[in-house]
Write a structure and sequence with these properties.
- The complex is a heterodimer.
- Chain A is of the alpha+beta class.
- Chain A folds into two domains: about 40 residues, no CATH class; about 160 residues, Butyryl-CoA Dehydrogenase, subunit A, domain 3, CATH 1.20.140.
- Helices cover about 55% and strands about 15% of the residues of chain A.
- Chain A has seven helices and seven strands.
- In chain A, the strands form three sheets. A three-stranded antiparallel sheet of chain A has the order 6-5-7. In chain A, strands 1-2 form a two-stranded antiparallel sheet.
- In chain A, helix 1 runs antiparallel to helix 3, helix 1 packs antiparallel against helix 6 and helix 3 packs across helix 4.
- The radius of gyration of chain A is 21 Å and the shape is elongated.
- Chain B has two domains: about 40 residues, no CATH class; about 170 residues.
- By secondary structure, chain B is mainly alpha-helical.
- In chain B, strand 3 and strand 4 form a beta hairpin.
- In chain B, helix 1 packs antiparallel against helix 3 and helix 3 crosses helix 4.
- Chain B is built from seven helices and five strands.
- Chain B is elongated.
- The chains are: A alpha+beta, B mainly alpha.
- Chains A and B meet through strand 1, strand 5, strand 6, helix 2 and helix 3 of A and helix 3, helix 4, helix 5 and helix 6 of B.
- Bound molecules: zinc ion (2 copies).
- The site of one zinc ion (ZN) has 8 residues of chain A, from loops.
């Protein structure tokens, strides 16, 4: 955290001298034990790799069936996109939009914006939107619910398994792998680290 | 007058930018690094958070009484409320999943209401609970809130999968909209609450106790 003299804890506002932490170490607030910052080894490369892999997996998750349902010779199959879009009727349009935003759009946007951020850090292209980009990333993170959606799929499977033959499609596995990458990316996101990168590049 | 906790940035007239983590004098009004507005504490955090939570609490009543799903099995129409869906899962022999949905849809919102009301109360009146415990509760509300969304996702998947089937049909119910509104409002309420005010006006002995 070079460049900064003091930092304050987000949760208890304790003012502390900016610690110098080594890669792999974590700065804890001495008063409330909040994790202030954590430096992961190869954070830049890992972030890029997980974000790109996550996006590719999400595209794959949209190319296969998510779940299949067989009842008395009747077969129905849905895709990931349909799990949100089929709700788009009558008074329930708002729910359909929410499901789409929380499960597909926001997580994808967060990954995409992180890739854009990393590219800007490396190349300097797009400096002007950097601050807005970071603000948007941190605003959207609480609203991305990929891991919750996986539990939702499993619950709906169990609800139907007593009356019909159920089958999980490739899309489910692709989406699960995507959610794993997404959570990996989140664990590597660190505000202090991000601003440290930005400042490093401003001094060059 | 707020007495900012000892050794806090606010006590020194410094504001921690929640956007980028830079500490600057509060007179600057705007973070010199990321241009976010600077405040010692989130403005009106307690009032805003409380207003959102009360709204959520009111909507929570129809969310539980109005069906979130209407199913039709062989011409038999059923109105499924949140609790009804859980009971049905249990009776079908899927006890573990019934427990998961019960925790996510029933326990999580209730725990969130209790914790947030308790935290608001503790800012104004004698807390009767150590600051360490209250901070733990605050972190818990952030972790659990999103999981209540499970029921909405289940409903979306079921509606999509079962449309156009002759034997079964599933339609969303108004309760689902109310329930989604409750979850979104409680997430906003937790996000707008500034935990740093829990440390202000606290006797120094309570703060030291935490060490
Ligand atoms: Zn702290
Ligand atoms: Zn800032």
């Amino acid at each position: 955290m070079s460049g900064l003299q003091h930092i304050a804890c987000d949760l208890c506002d304790l003012l502390i001298a900016a610690p110098t932490i080594e890669v792999g170490q974590c700065a804890l607030c001495p008063r409330c034990k909040h994790k202030i910052s954590r430096l992961r080894p190869n954070a830049f490369v890992s972030l890029f790799a997980y974000a790109v892999t996550g996006l590719v997996l999400l595209v794959l998750a949209n190319s296969f069936g998510l779940m299949q349902f067989k009842l008395a010779g009747n077969v129905a199959q849905i895709t990931l996109w349909q799990s949100a879009s089929e709700l788009y009727f009558d008074a329930y349009k708002i729910l359909s939009v929410l499901v789409f935003l929380f499960t597909i759009f926001f997580p994808a946007l967060v990954l995409l914006m992180i890739i854009m951020f990393l590219i800007t850090i490396k190349t300097g292209i797009g400096k002007f939107y950097m601050t807005s980009l970071l603000r948007l990333i941190f605003t959207l993170i609480p609203w991305s619910m990929a891991e919750v959606f996986i539990v939702g799929i499993i619950v709906s499977l169990v609800k139907l398994v007593t009356i019909a033959q159920m089958h999980l499609g490739w899309s489910f596995w692709a989406y699960t792998a995507f959610a794993f990458c997404y959570l990996k990316v989140l664990s590597l996101v660190d505000r202090y680290q991000f601003w440290h990168w930005i400042e490093g590049w401003q001094h060059d | 007058m707020t007495k900012y906790s000892k050794n806090s940035a606010a006590a020194a007239g410094l504001a921690n930018c929640l956007g980028c983590g830079l500490v600057s004098p509060v007179e600057k009004k705007q973070c010199p690094r990321c241009h976010a507005p600077l405040n010692l504490r989130k403005p009106y955090s307690l009032q805003l958070s409380l207003a959102l939570l009360i709204t959520a609490f009111i909507i929570y009543i129809p969310a539980n009484l109005v069906p979130i799903m209407i199913t039709e099995k062989l011409a038999k129409v059923e109105y499924v409320t949140i609790l009804g869906g859980i009971i049905e899962l249990w009776q079908d022999g899927s006890e573990p999943i019934a427990v998961v949905v019960f925790v996510a849809s029933v326990l999580v919102p209730i725990i969130k209401f209790i914790i947030l009301f308790l935290l608001y109360f503790s800012v104004r009146f004698a807390p009767g609970m150590s600051i360490t415990k209250r901070m733990m509760l605050f972190k818990l509300t952030h972790l659990i809130g999103r999981w209540s969304m499970v029921d909405i996702f289940v409903m979306a998947v079921l509606v999509a999968l079962i449309q156009m089937n002759h034997f079964l049909s599933v339609l969303p119910g108004g309760g689902a909209i109310a329930f989604a509104a409750v979850i979104i409002l409680t997430i906003f309420a937790a996000n707008s609450f500034d935990p740093r005010i829990l440390w202000d006006n606290l006797p120094q002995s309570d703060v030291d106790e935490n060490k």
